[in-house]
């Protein structure tokens, strides 16, 4: 590997670490509490601003990844091409289908902004979609399927690994907040359903899903 390639990989890895650290810090309850204590009038805009900075700061990372992606490491060919792209299409379809199960105004921050909501905690009730019966973080799972079914070059592989690690660590940080919000209901849910990857022998039955949803609300 050339010195240029090595330096590109180092800078990209550092950029992903910085992005992940900032994203996690701003999503944390201590950061929200600090802002709410100092500037409570800004809280209705917090979620909107959080999402905007997450997207804007992602752009230079994508530029670093794909401006010169490096050597080809593997390519999906033959049956693997159809299998990989079939999985990717299924993941896109699953992601699109899950949107109706979330309060997207809440997720984007539009509800907080329009309603002048100054509360720190998320406002959405505990709700389990069909996908949540099989995996606790469907969006992360679909994202991982999309990432790992692409033809892979050196720098995109590094980004894929960094994103995968962030999904693993970030999902655990997110669940700390969910345990604060939903307590024993979410703890019981965690005992039934795997975090990032569905397991055929571990899922939530339809009746148990309804019972947990009722308790969470």
Structure description:
The structure is a single chain. The protein has one domain. It is mostly helical. It contains 9 helices and 2 strands. The longest helix is centred in the last third of the chain and has 39 residues. A two-stranded antiparallel ribbon has the order 1-2.
What is the string of helix and strand elements?
HHHEHHHHEHH
User: How many domains make up the 3D coordinates?
Assistant: 1
- The shape is globular
Detail the poorly predicted runs: none
Helix content: 55-70%
With strands numbered from the N-terminus, the spatial order across the biggest sheet is: 1-2
What's the end-to-end separation, in Å? 55 Å
The assembly state of the depicted protein chains is: single chain
SSE class: mainly alpha
**Annotation, overall tally of beta strands:** 2
- How can the largest sheet be summarized? 2 strands, antiparallel
Summarize the structure.
With 217 residues, this protein is mainly alpha-helical. Helices cover 68% and strands 2% of the residues.
Note the topology:
Elements: H1 3-27, H2 29-38, H3 46-66, E1 72-74, H4 79-98, H5 104-108, H6 110-114, H7 138-148, E2 152-153, H8 154-192, H9 206-216
Antiparallel strand pairs: 1-2
């Amino acid at each position: 590997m050339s010195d240029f390639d090595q330096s590109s990989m180092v800078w990209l890895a550092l950029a992903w670490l910085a992005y992940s650290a900032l994203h996690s810090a701003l999503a944390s309850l201590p950061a929200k509490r600090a802002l709410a204590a100092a500037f409570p009038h800004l809280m209705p805009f917090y979620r909107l601003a959080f999402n905007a900075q997450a997207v804007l700061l992602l752009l230079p990372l994508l530029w670093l990844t794909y401006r010169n992606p490096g050597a080809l490491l593997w390519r999906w060919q033959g049956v693997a091409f159809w299998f990989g792209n079939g999985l990717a299409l299924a993941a896109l379809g699953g992601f699109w289908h899950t949107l109706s199960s979330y309060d997207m105004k809440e997720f984007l921050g539009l509800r907080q902004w329009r309603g002048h909501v100054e509360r720190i905690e998320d406002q959405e009730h505990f709700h389990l979609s069909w996908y949540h019966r099989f995996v606790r973080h469907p969006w992360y799972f679909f994202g991982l399927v999309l990432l790992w079914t692409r033809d892979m070059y050196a720098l995109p592989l590094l980004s894929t690994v960094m994103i995968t690690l962030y999904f693993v660590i970030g999902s655990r940080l997110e669940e700390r907040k969910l345990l604060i919000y939903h307590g024993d209901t979410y703890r019981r849910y965690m005992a039934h359903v795997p975090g990032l990857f569905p397991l055929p022998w571990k899922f939530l039955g339809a009746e148990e899903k309804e019972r947990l949803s009722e308790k969470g609300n």
